[in-house]
Amino acid sequence: MPALGLALAAALTLPVPPAHGQGLERRDTVTQRSRPDFDAVGWRVGTFTAYPSLGGELRYSDNVLADRVSEESDTAVVFTPLLRVESRGPRHRAEAGAAAELARYQDLDTEDYEDARVWLRGERELGDGIASGEVSLAEEHEDRSSPEDLAGTNELTTFNRTVVRAAYRYQPARFLVGVDLGLSTLDFDTPGSVASANLNDDRDRDVTEAGLRVGYALSPDYTVFGELRVDEIDYDQRLDRNGFARNSDSVELRAGTQIDFTGRTAGEFWLGYLDRGYDDGRFSDNSGLSFGGEVQWNITGLTTLSAGASRTIDATTIVGASGITRTDFMLGVDHELFRNLIISGELEFTNEDFEDLARDDDLAAFELAANYLLNRYLRVQAGYTYEERETSPASSGGREFEINQLFIRVTGQL
């Protein structure tokens, strides 16, 4: 904790450009724009402003264990306390925060969890550039719908995640140069019901990544760029539980564009080529097309359409698989039905291709929610979510499921 205290002090002295003004500016979407009559005021503490909130949710799921064979339904009460402290100035922004999510199920108490996270982030203008940094510490649980979940255990898998990132973006006139460096650490626990007390230790790993982006603004609305990204995944154990060496590294080249039609459309998208190699000679290199991006379009002042896509290679310790090539597509819409009532819908489709293994999973998810802003102190959200996973071939060992979930959430803020 002393190190965290030092990091907090450093982050809070980092001076980020001021927030965009009111009106339809870049990233000023239906859900993100300022609403003076409903936004939290916060508490002023010297040069800082604190924004505390507390949410309470009632959640019903018809398949808590994400298992098509033995579907178990249950209702949970979820509490989400949060405290965010920020400082803004003409050339800076700094933020520190702490949040938690505590769930208690009525019958399946084995699915209870306590997630928590603390973070520090800041940005500061330096000449023609902006320097930024972030540190976060989290204790989380692995969802039952994860392909890595230890099926059949009567406890959830928990893990600690530490993330440190730093970046600098230099943009004099039309030119753009950006560099970033990140380090994340994952430390998994093993459910006590599993016979081998260190079963998940072979999943502990460090991920180091770095990027260099060079771009040129063809106009105020368009910037083209090229980018080089590298990463290295280093596992704590040289061999996993099945005798595979999981360490790997990758190189990726990207070319893309940023768009910024003030008040209407903003985002970026890119195409690239990714190559990942593994220490274990039994694994073949994963290489091929990569892509990603997200665009937000304010169709009108009351409606925002969002679209995104990505293709990545995720790490895994599933027997026989070197990695999971994950392809995601997302489409969402937010509509301001009334000035204090926002309706949102989102569709997601995902394909997971287990490299070096005859297994291919398709996932689909849908959410429909209504967010009612009573006043600046209270808001109510209600919604429905659906999620499914299909595995091919059926004999590959994947777990198929369908999950329907209803929720109502009340949040108080100051």
CATH class: Mainly Beta
Instruction: Tell me the span between the first and last alpha carbons.
Output: 28 Å
CATH architecture: Beta Barrel
Low-confidence stretches: 1-26
Largest sheet report: 18 strands, antiparallel, barrel
The run of helices and strands is HEEEEEEEEEEEEEEEEEEE
CATH domain fold name: Porin
What fraction strand? over 45%
Q: Give the count of structural domains.
A: 1
Distinct helical segment count: 1
Mean pLDDT: 88
Rg over C-alpha atoms, rounded to the nearest angstrom: 23 Å
**Which overall shape is indicated by the principal axes computed on the Cα atoms?**
globular
| Helix/sheet category | mainly beta
Overall helicity: under 10%
Count of individual beta strands: 19
Commentary on this structure:
This protein is mainly β and 414 residues long. The chain has a single domain (2-413), classed as Porin (Beta Barrel), CATH 2.40.160. It is 3% helix and 62% strand. It has 1 helix and 19 strands. It has one helix spanning 2-12, and strands spanning 43-45, 48-61, 74-89, 92-105, 113-126, 129-141, 158-170, 175-188, 205-217, 222-235, 248-261, 265-278, 286-300, 303-314, 324-338, 341-354, 359-373, 378-392, 401-413. It has an 18-stranded antiparallel barrel. A hairpin with a 7-residue loop joins strand 4 and strand 5 (113-126). It is globular, with a radius of gyration of 23 Å. The model is unreliable at 1-26 (pLDDT under 50).
Give the topology, please:
Blueprint: H1 2-12, E1 43-45, E2 48-61, E3 74-89, E4 92-105, E5 113-126, E6 129-141, E7 158-170, E8 175-188, E9 205-217, E10 222-235, E11 248-261, E12 265-278, E13 286-300, E14 303-314, E15 324-338, E16 341-354, E17 359-373, E18 378-392, E19 401-413
Antiparallel strand pairs: 1-2, 2-3, 2-19, 3-4, 4-5, 5-6, 6-7, 7-8, 8-9, 9-10, 10-11, 11-12, 12-13, 13-14, 14-15, 15-16, 16-17, 17-18, 18-19
